[in-house]
Amino acid sequence: MYQYKTLSNGIRVVAEKITYLKSISIGIWVGNGSRYESKRENGISHFIEHMLFKGTQNRSAAQIAGEIDAVGGQLDAFTTREYTCFYTKTLDEHIPIALDILSDMLHNPRLDAGDMTLERQVIKEEIRMYEDSPEDLVYDLSSYAVWGDTPMGRTILGTYESLDGINPDIMRSYMHNHYTSANTIISVSGNFNDNFFDLLEKYFGQSDITDTVPSLPEAPYLSRRNIVRTKDIEQVQLVSTFRGIDVMDESVYSLLVFNNIFGSGMSSRLFQNIREQRGLVYSISAGHSAYINTGVFDICAGMSPESLEEVASLISKEINTIKRFKLTKDEVERSKEQLKGNYILAGESTGARMQGAGRSLLLGKPIYTQDEVIRKIEAVNTASVADIIDCVLDSSTLCVSAVGPVDNVENLFTLD
Known about the structure:
- The structure is a single chain.
- By secondary structure, this protein is α+β, with helices and mostly antiparallel strands.
- Helices cover 43% and strands 19% of the residues.
- Strands 1-2-6-3-5-4 form a six-stranded mixed β-sheet, sandwiched between helices. It has a five-stranded mixed β-sheet with strand order 7-11-8-10-9, with helices on both faces.
- A hairpin with a 5-residue loop joins strand 1 (2-6) and strand 2.
- The longest helix has 19 residues, at 113-131.
- The chain is globular.
- The mean pLDDT is 97.
């Protein structure tokens, strides 16, 4: 059962008490990511994530790491296109330590110019690592293909040039405008006692935080754009992208049922027919990413250059087949059982439960109980699956991206 609270400064809290556990996961969610950045600011959200670990007015970077390690806890963060999350997992008896460290990082970051110089170099090394990883690079290209030179189409890490233009004053100003009470969620899953919400008020209820909500740039989907990065490597990494569904679309359950059969996991058609039966790829899969008012459905594969056309032809065949014949009732029922099992097993983790609730509340989605989700999965049928197949496998929205020893992907796919 979820409990909802609002701190005195407007920060919203969603908490799920699980009394039979001795641990607790706490996440601070900020509605800010690369989608909110101007071109000059590109990468600042991820840069801030790094800098908040570099020390506060009260703790050095070593003290932050040492204090959480001393109680056997975990402290980490991640930045996406639409949000940033800082989170801990500790024993329930160490809740005050976790809250003290998280609040200190969020409210008292040092943002020292010298630290920023060092961390800027670290992020540039991270960019180089991504440039040397075709599997990662091809997804950056696919985002640019789909959304172009917009905040959604640019990388989360930023560029060398944009990072060089970010100084402590710019970062403080950005945090003032984006790390606001109206734009922050605290999500909790695990065991806690009756004074927990008093502790949240103590550590996060500061009244000197602004309450504005940053404006969200539009992200129009650009169809039929192809991008190739020619690299002298052994494989071609290929991503074919279709317009997907947005984060509020309840047909996501039908999409997941469809994709269990089509492209998710080792039993999927793509994996079995292209990897297992023909040995043409090492990895091949399909999946969806949903955002506010937009989304994508990707099919990705890695293969030798001489297999590129055959793999694309086989992917085309699988797309055309499932669009023409859809799924049988038996396939839908089998996929639903698989989906329920995956969902229930994932729910055994307090971290996963905290992340699911925090992301939903931040993005304005309903937070469903496990029973409610199971009922939504059960409600999926052949008709709803047929509808979502036609929706996300619309050939008019196809964009193709590739990295490797290839210079052209035009007319690679033959779709009905």
